[in-house]
Amino acid sequence: MAKQERSGGSILQFSPFQSFVDEGFWHRLSSLKLNKFGIDDSPIAITGFYAPCSHSQVSNHLTLLSESLPCDESEQSSVPAISLGNRNRCSVPGILYNTNTLEAYHALDKKSLLKEEAKKIWEDIHTGKAVEDSAVLLRFLLISFADLKKWSFHYWFAFPALVFDPPVTVVELKPASQWFTSEEADSVSVACNGWRNSSLTAGVPFFLVCIASNSHATIRHLKDWEACQGDGRKQVLFGFYDPCHLPNNPGWPLRNFLALICSRWNLKTVHFLCYRENRGFADLGVSLVGEAVITIPQGWRDLQCVPNAVGWELNKGRHISRVINLAKSMDPAMLAISAADLNLKLMRWRAWPSLNLDELSSTKCLLLGAGTLGCQVARMLMAWGVRKITLLDNGRVAMSNPLRQSLYTLDNCLNGGDFKAMAAVKSLKQIFPAVEAEGVVMAIPMPGHPVSSQEEESVLEDCRRLHELVESHDAVFLLTDTRESRWLPALLCANANKITITAALGFDSFLVMRHGSGPLNSSNDVKAESEIALSGDMDSLALADSGGERLGCYFCNDVVAPTDSTANRTLDQQCTVTRPGLAPIASSLAAELFVDILHHPNGIFAGVIADSTNSGGGDQPLGILPHQIRGSLHQFSQMTLVGHASESCTACSSTVITEYRKKGKEFLLPAINHPTYLEDLTGLTELMKSASSFKLDCNNETDDDDDDDDDYVEL
Amino acid sequence: MPHCTNLFFVLCCKVHSNHHEVHYYDFHIVYSASYRVPVLYFRGYDSDGLPLQLNEIEKDLPACSAKVLLESKWTFITQEEHPYFNRPWYKLHPCGTSEWMKLLFLDEAVLAESKVAIELHLVSWFSVVGQVIGLRVPIEMVNGRIN
Predict the structure, then answer these.
(1) DSSP helix/strand/coil, A439
(2) Which letter does DSSP use for residue B18 in this model?
(3) What's the CA gap between A254 and A369, in Å, rounded?
(4) Rounded Cα distance, A311 and A371, in Å
(5) Is the bond into A675 cis (omega within 30 degrees of 0)?
(6) Does A410 touch chain B (CB under 8 A)?
(7) What does the alpha-carbon distance between residue A643 and residue A628 come to, in Å, rounded to a whole number?
């Protein structure tokens, strides 16, 4: 705006009020809209807060906080009980129009809304209310649209200011310290600090500064104006809390203040004090004093003749609405992600600098079994930041399950029971919405559970599906409840060379182990494999584990092939009845072992660090990387063991894997249907024959009198 | 706002970041009853009121503070609900605080002057923690007390 020379000086230019909305305000509004207002879009009385400028380089704002909105307890009234302000928060009344749609927001008649608020100010001036409760001069307007699905908020403030026509001019404007004598300045400071420190007056933004002829200053309420006239008053200034910091401009509140002064007390020359502070005390170097000259506009005596008003806030200089998106701080799902990430990072900063969170969050884990072990492993993996989890189980949630299977509740058991895999996925998402969990309802084909010729097709289909699941994941957890159900997965994992962790439970003992690497290179190299295999070149076998031999899998110590362990058994032998504490212990160890493998430089090929003096040193930040952990609750003991791969293993030996790759279903079907096929194939039959020809007196798992034990304890 | 007996100190500041954008910061020092040490809560936001993410806040820190944040064992940031506002704020995790506070107070003479121990405690605490957020304790604050 160009300055014009007029009698009395240049046009007084006011610095516009700036708004600031604390995120808590939107949070509160969202909650009120959802829970209380619903579709009702009638205007809401709100309270804004501001304080005098507190720093010479920064203006203060009109701030909205969550307290700006009415509280839940009280009735929705047209005028909120404005809380008695304190020195940092002077309360001013405002009104909020929050629409139900974006279209309605843009369609609001801004002109008439502003006029309506200006009219309220005008009336308050004329009725004298503005003298009693001067904060009403700063009445403001806010229009908004809260998009509660996207957590974005469109809003626009207006600070209605009555327009003077002709405009107010300023004769002089200078720092207060230059206007007053030093005696006066000291006294004014003291008086202002007193006003600001008293809880009765701290929230009163407009006041009179009366300076007596002896330079003593007092601060008075506006309503004491008449009392301040006459005798001994050297000068009376109109003071107000000025949020603006600029040295050449007063803040916005002065506009309506001048309107009040001229129409109430008919003054044409007004001395005003823009009160500003520094570090909590009056700062008369930053505060301004000025002399304004007013030409009282025609028609201002008439209450009915409401002057024009301006005041829509500019957005970075443009006359447009503002919008912010608060999803990151308000969307609970996003807050959960951010909190989880930070928590894991805490671990990295504190104890484990090389913790690779990116690897954890991108590793795809396949959990076979969604029972006591599956539920618990899934939870632990999520706690470690694993985000991609697939659960496979063909069962339904039974009434006894929720107690021990931590992802299920009673609701999952009703109406025949939900499918475990699906219920587990749903539960995981309720715990942590950002998890990418999938459920697969499928039975795992098992040796020793023969299938009829009608079922062959679908069983082969299941095998194929399982094969693909193993191929498409990075780590597989064998968490089923029978030994034979682990056979095909173990084979497929050895075939695909995937990180494999087995957890198995006895009544009061458990096994957690990591399978060694597969015997051959990845199945992508099948063609090269068969060529090399023909030449009988031993070097063609896959990388040995560091330390030489491959570590074994779950079946490497078996000298019989897995058979049906569930038929003809009593209930407590059929579904393993275990001490409840066992599954969580084993599951936790399985998850921790997995994380260690991921961080070992050799991954699946990692050998076992047997050197006990090397605890936690070097490149193993969390300690040793055992092959097998066997624990017993009976003695509260735990030990780590090593078992190397057996060339006669029914699941991971090169014989079996090669046969699987070459023959596919012609291998699988006999393995499933024929009890001794695997043993013949791997030479176990031979081994047993040769073993029985010696009289051995060793503690052997295949001792006949341990038959019951062997089937009961599935380790 | 509920009566805050444990809210020691409130500090606001403004930072000019690049692109002529202004960032505002609030710092609260709150006493943690469970860790029994002061804890620094903070948050940043831009002029529209949009809260700043941690990576944006880190850009506002002076270079040496950012270094301290990365390397120090004593200071790690988590996000938690502010104890009074129930909105997510960032905080410097207090789990290491009592350990390093003991190091600062090894001098028994200091402990003996119990009447100024509380003020010294906060100032000393802040002299470590403040480095992380780029705020320094003016030397006068410490000298006056000791003498």
Answers:
(1) strand
(2) G
(3) 73
(4) 65
(5) no
(6) no
(7) 8
- Answer for the pair B95, B82: CB distance below 8 angstroms, yes or no: no
Q: Of B11, B26, B56, B79, which to mutate for an interface test with A (greatest number of A Cβ within 10 Å)?
A: B79
* 3-state helix/strand/coil string of A266-289: CCCEEEEEEECEECCEECCCCCEE
Assign B119 a pLDDT band (cuts: 50, 70, 90): low
Distance CA A553, CA A513 (A): 8
**pLDDT tens digits for range B66-76:** 666 666 655 56
Question: Residue A274, CB half-sphere, CA atoms under 13 Å: how many?
Answer: 31
Count of CB atoms within 10 A of residue A546's CB? 13
Residues of A in contact with B45 (CB under 8 A): 23
- B88–A27: do the CB atoms touch at under 8 Å? no
Q: Where are the domains of chain B?
A: 8-146
Longest dimension (CA), chain B: 51
> DSSP string covering A501-552, please?
EEEEE-SSEEEEEE----SSS-GGGHHHHHHHHHHT-GGGS--PPTTSSPBP
Please enumerate in sequence order all residues whose Cβ is within 8 A of that of A706, keeping only pairs 6 or more positions apart, or say none: none
Contact B87 A325 (CB under 8 A): no
Separation between Cα atoms, residue B78 and residue A377, nearest integer Å: 26
Determine which helix (DSSP H) or strand (DSSP E) holds A674, and give its type and residue range: none
The secondary structure of chain A in percent helix, strand, coil, rounded to multiples of 5, reads: 40, 20, 40
Query: Which chain B residues are within 8 Å of A21, Cβ to Cβ?
Result: 48-49
B95 is catalytic: yes
d(CA A448, CA A444): 12
Interatomic CA distance for residues A530 and A602, integer angstroms: 26
List per-block mean pLDDT (blocks of 10 residues) for chain A, which spans 715 residues: 53 93 92 89 94 89 92 52 68 95 95 95 94 95 94 96 92 93 94 92 93 90 86 82 95 95 90 93 94 87 86 92 90 87 77 86 97 97 97 95 96 95 98 96 90 90 96 97 92 96 90 92 46 40 53 81 58 66 95 93 77 42 78 91 88 92 91 85 74 53 39 40
The CA–CA distances, whole Å, from A41 to A73, A101, A178, B82, B84 equal 19, 10, 51, 31, 30
A58 touches chain B (CB under 8 A): yes
Place of tokens 């500003």: A276
Residues 6+ away with beta carbon under 8 Å from A22: A63, A64, A65, A66, B49
Let me know: does A505 contact A578? Beta carbons within 8 Å.
Answer: yes
Q: Tens digits of per-residue pLDDT, B97-113?
A: 766 666 666 554 555 55
Query: According to the model, what pLDDT value does residue A612 have?
Result: 40
The confidence score (pLDDT) of residue B27 equals 85
- Beta-ladder partners of B31: B38
Structure token pair of residue A627: 């092959």
Architecture per CATH, domain B8-146, reads as 2-Layer Sandwich (3.30)
Distance, CA of A95 to CA of A116 (rounded, Å)? 11
Judging contacts by C-beta atoms under 8 Å, the chain B residues touching residue A48 are none
The answer to whether ipTM exceeds 0.90 is: no
Beta-strand ranges (E) seen in A27-151 are 44-50, 62-64, 90-99, 140-147
In A350-379, the residues whose Cβ lies within 8 Å of chain B are 350
Q: Is residue B77 within 8 Å of residue B56, measured between CB atoms?
A: no
CA distance linking residue A355 with residue A349, whole number of Å: 9
- Cα–Cα distance, A154 to A43 (Å, whole number): 16
* Residue in A50, A54, A42 with CA at minimum distance from that of residue A68: A50
Q: Residue A691 phi/psi, 5° resolution?
A: -65, -40
The phi-psi region of residue A308 (left if phi > 0; otherwise alpha if psi is between -120 and 50; otherwise beta) is beta
